[in-house]
Design brief:
The structure holds 2 protein chains of 2 kinds. By secondary structure, chain A is α+β, with helices and mostly antiparallel strands. Chain A has helices spanning about 15-25, 45-55, 70-80; strands at about 1-5, 30-35, 40-45, 60-65. In chain A, strands 1-4-2-3 form a 4-stranded antiparallel beta sheet, covered by helices on one side. In chain A, a hairpin with a 2-residue loop joins β2 and β3 (about 40-45). The termini of chain A are far apart. The chains are: A alpha+beta, B alpha/beta.
């Protein structure tokens, strides 16, 4: 299992569209994935789960991925966060 | 089986599509259990419904084209993801299996469980995402109650609901909704006004629609006659096709009005200005023969940026506008923003508890001298390329107009000194949208060169009714005696002082209100190009002297019903565009 701490830096936080992008991205990987913040852990492949996490801008979330392609999945997610979900392009 | 329902036509146009029924209390399902042996069948029924919704959303997605495709596509993708969400789905099966709940009740419980978490979120934006979940659950719920579960080939949808909020309409249309049928509602409601401006067919007052129409039924809707046919037969389909052809013919007829004057039957020329910002709207305004641009909102130059637009950038935009109108006057409104929109701009404003009543429009400009100065310089420089007028929003007092005039005069003098070629005269006008300005107008009319009435805000402020608050229902309406009187007074004051006055709210763009505004003495309308020809058609069907002779009755109307009755009576029967549907 891999664990990474990711800062949420995009302006709107993990809002619906950003969440949709995250879930779509993860659905391409076999590994299971969770996000946690403020003591809550949710399924990162569930849009509802991630929205319920309600991570606003400036929050930090912990990503945990587990499975055969966990390295690639973690890299891809970290890159998406770093690109601020492409929302300010 | 074929069934005809009769409502009131509120927005013209015909549509053929599948009903998407939205029950007013779709999620208000009582606890309901099923026998243990039916559990697996119930789960299968639920999943069949989810499959239908998924397939239909896929069809909708495929139909999306053009500029909206990306934005709406993302929105539909979000709904599709919700539909496949493990947290949503697994929870449902479990509720049915463990408690023998019906699929309906399980949906409701699941929805409430999610809503409970959402309503406690700190983030206002995320809190409202419960709407997306409600839409998805509402679709599944409706699909559970179809007569057959087949995926329907006709992708176009007709929304059938008890009522529809104005704020929903653009979104519904963007999602591919072809027409709307409501069991309640009025043809002069804010929703109906908006539907007409969007050219979205709307039938209101189809009393039994929710009882007689099931989700997935094929409907033929006629927004002119108010007829809704369920399961149309061959004859109905022929009628529908004839209606569509007729609609195209009407469009062609309207298009012939491009080169015609906006002149009443008795020869009075009415000025139709365009509200335009995008180059497309400006080109369209020019092609339609608009008198000029009556309202150019400068906010869009500021929105969605991290830095304020500098003088050069604003100047380019204003100059292009002026050049695009080739000598016709353009009216540039100075920045009309408040704290509610400013987080999207280069302006940094403190949060306000009530931004509608806060530092916005001219109040903001006068507090941010540098920002205002930059904007005025850009506008004044553009005046060297064609006639320009400056319009100031949210004015409530004489002092504000004087302060703006002083700054404008200083800017003109400075630019002249710098050697810029600028217009001899740049008229300065005030928006009349704060009731105080409307009432105090006689005391400051000498300070302005022209006026523009923003009815959207004037109605909202005068009636203390937020136009986007759905709970207020029809309280937000231009058909209030207070508005009619005030509008009449403002127009009379302007006319007495020889100052041009236009109305630039939604009201001006709706052919249904043309007789009312003409009766009150209005000679200038400013409206989006989309409905300019329809308003011109309505003007051309009016007899101004006849309307003026009835103005006193209108000014003394004491309630909404009597204003509506006046409009019905005043509207020329041979003018389809301005027809106000009668209420049964």
């Amino acid at each position: 299992m891999l664990e990474r701490t990711l800062p949420v830096t995009n302006r709107l936080g993990l809002h619906a569209r950003a969440t949709a992008k995250l879930v779509q991205l993860l659905s391409g990987f076999r590994s299971s994935a969770t996000l946690s913040a403020r003591g809550r852990e949710v399924n990162a492949k569930s849009i509802m789960g991630v929205m319920l996490l309600a991570a606003g801008q400036g929050a930090e979330v912990i990503l945990r991925v587990d499975g055969e392609d966990e390295v690639a999945a973690a890299e891809a997610v970290a890159a998406l966060f770093a690109r601020k979900f492409d929302e300010e392009s | 089986m074929r069934k005809v329902l009769s409502g009131h036509g509120a927005s013209r146009g015909s549509a053929l599509g599948r009903a998407r029924v939205r029950l007013p209390h779709a999620l208000d399902v009582a606890e309901e259990t099923i026998p243990a042996e039916q559990v697996e069948a119930e789960i299968a029924r639920l999943h069949a419904a989810i499959d239908v919704v998924r397939a239909e959303m896929g069809l909708l997605r495929e139909r999306l084209q053009g500029a909206l495709a990306k934005e709406i596509g993302e929105f539909l993708d979000l709904h599709a993801l919700l539909l496949d969400d493990p947290e949503l789905l697994e929870g449902l099966d479990e509720l049915i299996r463990a408690n023998f709940y019906s699929a309906d009740y399980a949906l409701r419980l699941q929805r409430d469980r999610i809503a409970a978490v959402f309503t406690h979120m700190d983030d206002a934006y995320l809190r409202t995402r419960i709407d997306d979940i409600d839409q998805v659950i509402g679709r599944i719920h409706a699909a559970l109650h179809r007569r057959d579960a087949a995926v329907h080939g006709i992708a176009g949808e007709i929304l059938v609901a008890d009522n529809v909020a104005p704020s929903e309409l653009p979104q519904l249309q963007a999602q591919g909704v072809l027409a709307v049928v409501t069991s309640a509602g009025s043809a002069l409601s804010h929703s109906a006004i908006l539907a007409r401006s969007l050219h979205l067919p709307l039938v209101v007052g189809a009393t039994w629609a929710l009882q007689k129409i099931n989700d997935g039924d094929v409907l033929a809707v006629d927004g002119s006659t108010g007829l809704v046919v369920r399961d149309p037969d061959a004859d109905d389909l022929r009628t529908h096709r004839a209606r569509v052809r007729e609609g195209k013919r009407e469009r062609r007829q309207l298009n012939r009005l491009r080169r015609e004057p906006s002149r009443t039957l008795d020869g009075a020329d009415i000025k139709l200005w365009a509200n335009a910002e995008s180059p497309e709207d400006v080109a369209e305004a020019h092609a339609l023969g608009a008198a000029g641009v009556g309202l150019y909102r400068t906010e869009f130059l500021f929105l969605g940026r991290r830095e304020l637009p500098d003088e050069e950038m604003q100047f380019q935009a204003y100059r292009n506008l002026v050049l695009g109108m080739t000598g016709r006057t353009v009216t540039i409104r100075t920045l009309d923003l408040g704290a509610d929109k400013a987080d999207n701009t280069g302006l940094v404003l403190p949060d306000e508890p009530n931004p509608a009543l806060g530092v916005r429009g001219v109040r903001l400009s006068l507090r941010r001298q540098a920002v205002f100065e930059t904007q005025l310089r850009a506008i004044v420089r553009a005046s060297g390329y064609g006639p320009v007028r400056v319009l100031v929003p949210m004015v409530s007092s004489r002092e504000e107009v004087l302060a703006v005039r002083e700054q404008l005069d200083r800017t003109i003098a400075a630019l002249r000194a710098e050697g810029h070629a600028i217009a001899e005269h740049i008229p300065l006008g005030a928006m009349i949208e704060v009731p105080a300005a409307a009432i105090a107008l006689p005391g400051f009319i000498d300070t302005v060169d022209f006026l523009s009435v923003g009815t959207n805000d004037l109605v909202q402020y005068l009636l203390a009714a937020d136009r986007n608050n759905e709970a207020l229902g029809d309280l937000y309406t231009p058909l209030h005696p207070a508005l009619v009187r005030l509008l009449g007074d403002v127009i009379a004051t302007a006319s007495a002082h020889g100052k041009p006055i236009a109305v630039c709210g939604e009201m001006a763009g709706d052919p249904a209100f043309v007789p009312l505004l003409l009766a009150l003495g209005l000679g200038e309308f400013s409206l989006h190009p989309a409905t300019l020809l329809e308003v011109r058609q309505a003007v051309r069907a009016c007899d101004l002297s006849r309307l003026r002779s009835r103005a006193e009755t209108l000014r003394h109307a004491y309630d909404r019903a009597s204003i509506e009755a006046w409009l019905r009576e005043a509207t020329c029967p041979d003018n389809p565009a301005a027809r106000v549907p009668s209420h049964g």
